[in-house]
Every structure is written in structure tokens, then in C-alpha cells.
């Protein structure tokens, strides 16, 4: 079971609104040393949780991956998510009612600040490796900009310095699907369930690509209905709706759209120049959602950085699936 950190103070958000308090569910593996410095912090993506050993299986491997005898690993369920952290499903302490759509909007920058507050409570003085893919990479990047002296090494996978117009359009299309479900406006846990299923099906088209479907969802030659690709989309939508809440998805996609390290920092280039951590940027050659041009930009503008492009048929999801290759790349650049 995840632990829960409670911050019993008003937390001002980037947009000027305030959360009266917040909680973050988090999980740790290994043991923190006396200096509070043997830390690997993993930032999760959109619908993941505080258990990277579940959604990144194989990453903890003494021989090729992360050695839990050496490191204290932390992963926190982010603000707005539905796995124990403060979210639209939480009770507003000022009204004693479920927040619902009265939950304030928040940014990636806000998420990074909450993670840093948690790290201070845990007695962490520095983070040896800060790692994140996709939306997790956005959080890690922001944190490394906000606290450049605290983050020693940074691993950014399949992510960007600013969410693209393409990515925002995809997210808005998903939100439109959620909003078209009239139950979305209710305040129960199944609100927007069917809309969330449609949103997930839309998202999958950006997580994978043409070749992925062509190789995994092939029908019999004479099929006229009940296509494998159709059933796959429905299955994935239903699978997510059984474990995730539509309002959390809606808010988190909004936070993802807010990602722009250059906002109020003159430019993305100048913001990235603030990062002091030795950085490894990993891209997926077939990624449609975060194309490799975005990772090349990161590597070009983070001073102490290296770039690795992984060849995968799984598109954006390659950052979750190609674990063995990712471990090899990590070992190539770092002494984990």
C-alpha cells in the first residue's frame, strides 16, 4: 500500500488559485542513506501510479537496471490523479463535499513543486537520478529547472520542452469525448465512464502507429465485421475506465497541455539552460505524439546532455515497453 503525505497548508497554484491542503500517495523501495542522497525518483505518466515496478516491469534489476541495494527509489502519485492523491474525487475541506469540476486547474509546474515539498519531508538532500517519460518527463524537466542544484542526473524519455499544438489538439479531442458523456457532470466515481473509454481509444492512436496495428491487429482475409482493431480499441477503453476516473483524466490532460518550460522564463532555450544535471534524453523513432525532433531540441539546449534514439515498432508506448533497451542505454551513460 502507498504511504500518504499530507501538506496541511494552503498551496498557491501557478494560476493564482489556492488548494487549502493536499495529499500525495507515494511509494518507496530500498533505504535512504544518512545523507539523504542515494535517491532515484521516478515521475509517472498520465494514468500510472506510484508503483513503477508494476508499469515499468524489469527496470529494477541489479545486473542491468536499478539496484535496490544501492538506491532509495521514490515514486509519487501526482496531484490530480486518482490513486490516493488529492484530486477532483477528494473532499474539499472548505465545503465538505467532493470537489468535482470545482477542483482548481493546475500545471506541470505545480506538480513539480508538490513533489519537491514531499522530497523535503522525506529528508532528501539531493536526487542522484530523476527519471520520467512522457508526462513524467515534463515533471522531471520542470523540477530540474526549479531546483538545479538538487538534481544531479536527469533522464528524460519521449517528452518535450513544450506540449505541441498536435498534442494539445489530441488532448482536447479526448476531453470533447469525455464531455459528450452526460454523466461526466455527476460527482460519483463512475461519472464520464463511457466518455473516458472513447478518450482512451483516441489516445491509443497517438501512443501507437500504423505499423503497430498492422502487425498486431490482423484479421482473417474474408472478415467483414468484428475486426480485431475494433475490439482492441473497446477493450483498452474499458480496461482504463475500470481503474481510472474521467475527471482525473480531464484535469491531468489539461495540466499536460500547460507544459511550457519557457513560460515567463523568456524562452524554452533559456529555461533549459538552467538545468545543471547531467542529462540523458531518450527518444522513440516511431513516436507520433512526441516526435524525435522534440528530444533533439532538449539535447541541444541542455548543456551537459546526451541523446539516444531507440528504434521501436510501438511508437510512444515504446518508452514503457522497450525496457531492456532502455536499461542498456542507461548503463551506457551512467553507473547505476
TrEMBL record:
Reaction catalysis annotation: L-homoserine + acetyl-CoA = O-acetyl-L-homoserine + CoA
Oligomer and partners: Homodimer.
Q: What is its main location?
A: cytoplasm
Enumerate the NCBIfam families for this protein: homoserO_Ac_trn (TIGR01392), PRK00175.1 (NF001209)
Enzyme Commission number, as recorded = 2.3.1.31
* Statement: the UniProt record of this protein carries the keyword Amino-acid biosynthesis: yes
Q: Name one Pfam family in it.
A: Abhydrolase_1
Q: What is this protein called?
A: Homoserine O-acetyltransferase
Swiss-Prot/TrEMBL keywords: Acyltransferase, Amino-acid biosynthesis, Cytoplasm, Methionine biosynthesis, Transferase
Where does the AB hydrolase-1 domain lie?
A: 39-320
Report the locations given in the UniProt record: Cytoplasm
Biological or metabolic pathway of the protein: Amino-acid biosynthesis; L-methionine biosynthesis via de novo pathway; O-acetyl-L-homoserine from L-homoserine: step 1/1
Residues that hold substrate according to the record: 200, 317
Question: Which family is this sequence assigned to?
Answer: Belongs to the AB hydrolase superfamily. MetX family.
- Per the Swiss-Prot or TrEMBL record, the active site comprises 134 (nucleophile), 287, 316
* Biological classification of the source: Bacteria, Pseudomonadati, Bacteroidota, Flavobacteriia, Flavobacteriales
Q: What does this protein do?
A: Transfers an acetyl group from acetyl-CoA to L-homoserine, forming acetyl-L-homoserine.
Q: Which GO terms describe its molecular function?
A: homoserine O-acetyltransferase activity
Q: Broadest EC class?
A: transferase
